[in-house]
């Protein structure tokens, strides 16, 4: 059942990526500390092509700046040289496409970490 739900979510991400919601740069703003252990799963979906999934296991008590760094590391590891991923202002993560790559959209597939909020917006 879980794999079915993840597949549906990724399918929705892919369909959104075909819409006007794709951009060349996104900001993920993290706020709040981890009041529970949990997992954050993000999907980065280019306008055409397969989405990239990044999963971060977050321990209880992790501060927002540390969560942002963990997400940066996971996104960079999964996206390789296709995208630039960096931390900005401690609690924000900027994701930018490299020249020649397609515009993309980032969505939250799962956030089971109590207390950690993620706001995603185009830059």
SSE arrangement:
Blueprint (H helix, E strand, L loop, with lengths): L1 H16 L7 E7 L6 E9 L5 E7 L5 H16 L3 E6 L3 E6 L6 E8 L5 E6 L1
Antiparallel strand pairs: 1-5, 1-7, 2-3, 2-6, 4-5
- CATH class reads Alpha Beta
Unreliable sequence segments? 4-19
Q: β content, as a range?
A: 35-45%
Looking at how many chains there are and whether they match, the oligomeric state comes to single chain
- Number of separate helices: 2
Write the CATH architecture name.
Answer: Alpha-Beta Complex
Give the strand order, joined by hyphens, for the main sheet. 4-5-1-7
Radius of gyration: 14 Å
Which range best describes the helical content: under 10%, 10-25%, 25-40%, 40-55%, 55-70% or over 70%?
25-40%
**Whole-number total of structural domains:** 1
């Amino acid at each position: 059942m879980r794999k079915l739900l993840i597949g549906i979510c990724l399918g929705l991400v892919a369909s959104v990526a075909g819409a006007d919601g794709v951009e060349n740069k996104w900001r993920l703003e993290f706020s709040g500390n981890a009041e529970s252990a949990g997992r954050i799963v993000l999907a980065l979906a280019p306008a055409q092509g397969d989405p990239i999934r990044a999963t971060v296991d977050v321990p209880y008590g992790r501060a927002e700046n540390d969560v942002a760094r963990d997400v940066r590391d996971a996104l960079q590891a999964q996206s390789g040289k296709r995208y630039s991923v960096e931390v900005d202002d401690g609690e924000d993560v900027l994701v930018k496409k490299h020249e020649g790559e397609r515009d993309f959209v980032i969505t939250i597939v799962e956030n089971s970490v109590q207390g950690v909020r993620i706001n995603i917006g185009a830059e």
